[in-house]
Every structure is written in structure tokens, then in C-alpha cells.
Specification:
It is built from three helices and no strands. With 138 residues, the protein is mostly helical.
Amino acid sequence: EHYMWSYARFLMRLEMAQDSDLNGLESYVQEKVKVGDFQSWYPIDKALSLETEEDNKYSEKDLRVKDLEELRVVVRQCTDGSGEQIKNVRELKAGMKDTRESLKTMELVLMQLQTDVQKKADQMAAAAAAAAAAGSTG
């Protein structure tokens, strides 16, 4: 019942992935594979179709319902996280717009200040030149 190519792809992923990319189960299997221990994780002589009615707690139907419940939880968490991210992006964009406007205002104020400082420097230079001219004639 087990699809051997799924296991082959899984083993290839373990071989190619970096340790930091693996989850706990994948890391566990990777360590077992490194030491040649396939029996501890590969389902040998185990399949859902081989289970008896007494072993019903892990029936295929129960697993599917459980998996769907887990999937719903994950989807809900992703949705909540996405909503929070969208809110953060909007706040960031608004903050950037405010910052951009403030920078433009500051740029205009600095340009005006530079013009005023230049005028004052020109006036002082003219006054100094006039005083020097009056001092040399008198």
C-alpha cells in the first residue's frame, strides 16, 4: 500500500536539505538513515488496511478528520497572521508617507535657512567692506 516513490522523494529531500530546513521528524529520520536504521521509521508490515476493528483508533477515517482539524487550525493561524501582516504593512506605508512629507518640509526650511544665512553673510561682507573703505579714506 505504501507508495515507494514518496519515500524515495522524502529520502532525496533529506539528503539535499540543510539541517536548519528540516523539522523534528525529518531530522529524526535523517539521523536514522545516516546510521542505516530504516526499520525504526519505515512502516514495515504496517498499513491501515491491516488494522483490525480493535485497532480502530488509527483508522484512515479518523486520521483524515484529525488531519483536517489540524489543517483548519493552521489555515486559521495563517489567516490571522496574514491579517496582522497586512495591518503592519498599511501602518508602515502611512508612517513612510508621513516621514516623506516631514523630510520635504525640512528640506524647504533648510533651503530657506540657507538663503537667509547667505543674505546675512553678504550683508556682513558689504558692511565690512564699507567700514574698511571708510577707514582707509579717513
